[in-house]
Amino acid sequence: MTATHTTERAVVVKRVDSGTADTEEIRDLARAAGYRVVGEVTQTRTEDPGYHLGEGKVTRLANKVALEDATTVIFDNQLGPYQTYNIGNELPKGAQAVDRFRLILEIFGQRAQTRKAQLQVELAELRYELPRAEAKASLAKRDERPGFMGLGEYDETREEDIKKQISNIRDELESIEETEQHRREQRRESGFDLVALAGYTNAGKSTLLRRLADDLEVDENDDLHPDLDTTAESEDRLFTTLGTTTRRAQVGKRDVLVTDTVGFIQDLPHWLVESFKSTLDSVYRADLVLLVVDVSESIEEIREKLVTSHDTLYERNQAPIVTVLNKTDVVDDEEVRRKREALSKLAPNPVAVSGKEGLNVEELAARIDAELPDYERERLVLPMTDETMSVVSWIHDHAHVETVDYGDQVVIEFEARPAIVEQSRAKAGDLVGASA
């Protein structure tokens, strides 16, 4: 589903095992999807296997939906297929129950612009639907009433269709990833270091990308790297970045490509993470990962997000990780110091910045330079030929050239990534062989 819901009225619901239910995030998610939140229902109790909430609370929920003339009930919890069915039977006619993950998929569907993002959303939707199709088949065999309320109409071939579609989408995503991996290798061979921004939604990754990027250089290199996106939104809303945005930055002597990726989200089920894992390949295959966190959040929130982020990254990531404490413009220095100390085991030696105000971005750039793979120094002696000039030009484009002496021979000294040094040696060997 990709339509917005600006005219639809929604009641948000949240159940917690203990403590007090906080509905701020689910309200933000509902608004991000375009719903108008007109009420809420919360409950503190263990999960009811049949209705998720207690049956009495479901009755009060149905009354609330009728009173507010709402069309949708949005749970900040995961509902099982049978729970969705049972709750749907209790709601006023025409009202539907949507859980947290169905809502997230709606938002993803609205924001997906590229073919890859659209495929990932479709894959996640199919994985979400599969157990519900199985539940509808089970209900049909028990001769339950048609319609299945929140589960939708029954189609006996739907299960097989879903499985076939999932297989086809996986194949297409694998093909796209092979193409993107080839591009990453081309970038490295062109002398670029690859830096990825990771972290939760609204941590400020897109804003930080704009601070690091050299916008004009992206445009100048459009033909060389046609997949570079020259825009990176930095709105204060959830899931602004669904795909990836890559921009060029000059960090010390280095040419760096910085990629902003889809934000992590709390409490995502395995099937949803799995659907979007190809988006994270930009992180897994980077030379350095900047893990961005919102330092204005509580220590408990930051700690929980760091743990989850590390779990996600360490599964396949091999690059060093630098934690960036962003949004220092909204907290004082003492609070930053206190949080830095409290989080030192999870985030050793973090860099504190404000992407919005540009504070301390120079220190971050210096840290990026220090953490990226070391450059190698090289000195080549080349014969003086017409072909040599093109090799010298290539080295200028792909390395940091220190000196070039032109005489009977050309002597060039430079620093570069090991792969570029290796390529330059091969080119030099070809020149020497051709002039012999």
Task: Tell me about this structure.
The protein has 436 residues and is an alpha/beta fold. The protein has 15 helices and 13 strands. It has helices at residues 24-32, 55-68, 81-90, 100-111, 115-141, 158-189, 205-212, 215-220, 270-275, 281-284, 299-314, 333-342, 361-371, 386-398, 418-435, and strands at residues 9-16, 36-44, 72-75, 96-98, 192-199, 245-251, 254-260, 288-294, 321-326, 351-352, 376-383, 400-406, 409-416. It has a six-stranded mixed β-sheet with strand order 6-7-5-8-9-10, with helices on both faces. Strands 2-1-3-4 form a four-stranded parallel β-sheet. Strands 11-13-12 form a three-stranded antiparallel β-sheet, covered by helices on one side. 38% of the residues are buried. Mean pLDDT is 81; it is low at 145-149 and 215-241. Residues 193-376 form the Hflx-type G domain.
Compile the SSE list and pairings.
Layout (H helix, E strand, L loop, with lengths): L8 E8 L7 H9 L3 E9 L10 H14 L3 E4 L5 H10 L5 E3 L1 H12 L3 H27 L16 H32 L2 E8 L5 H8 L2 H6 L24 E7 L2 E7 L9 H6 L5 H4 L3 E7 L4 H16 L6 E6 L6 H10 L8 E2 L8 H11 L4 E8 L2 H13 L1 E7 L2 E8 L1 H18 L1
Parallel strand pairs: 1-2, 1-3, 3-4, 5-7, 5-8, 8-9, 9-10
Antiparallel strand pairs: 6-7, 11-13, 12-13
Helix pairs in contact: 1-4, 4-5, 5-6, 14-15
Short description:
By secondary structure, this protein is an alpha/beta fold.
**Largest sheet, strands/sense/barrel:** 6 strands, mixed
Helix content range: 40-55%
Determine Rg (CA atoms, Å).
27 Å
Residue stretches low in confidence (pLDDT < 50, at least 5 long) are 145-149, 215-241
Class from secondary-structure proportions:
alpha/beta
Order of helices and strands: EHEHEHEHHHEHHEEHHEHEHEHEHEEH
- Strands of the largest sheet, in order across it? 6-7-5-8-9-10
Mean pLDDT: 81
Number of strands: 13
Number of helices: 15
Instruction: Give the N-to-C terminal Cα separation.
Output: 67 Å
Shape: elongated
Strand content: 15-25%
